[in-house]
Amino acid sequence: MTKLMIIGAGQMGSGIVQVAAQSGFSVIMQDVKDEFTERGMKTIRTSLERFVKKSTLTQEDVEATLGRIRITTDLAMAAEADVVIEAAIEKMDVKKEIFRKLDQIAPQDALLASNTSSLPITELAAVTRRPEQVMGMHFMNPVPMMKLVEMIRGLQTSDATYQAIETLAKDMGKTPIAVRDFPGFISNRILMPMINEAIYCLYEGVAEPAAIDEIMKLGMSHPMGPLQLADFIGLDTCLYIMEVLYEGFADSKYRPCPLLRKYVEAGYLGKKSGRGFYQYA
Ligand code: CAA
Question: In which residue ranges of the chain is pLDDT below 50?
Answer without folding.
Answer: none
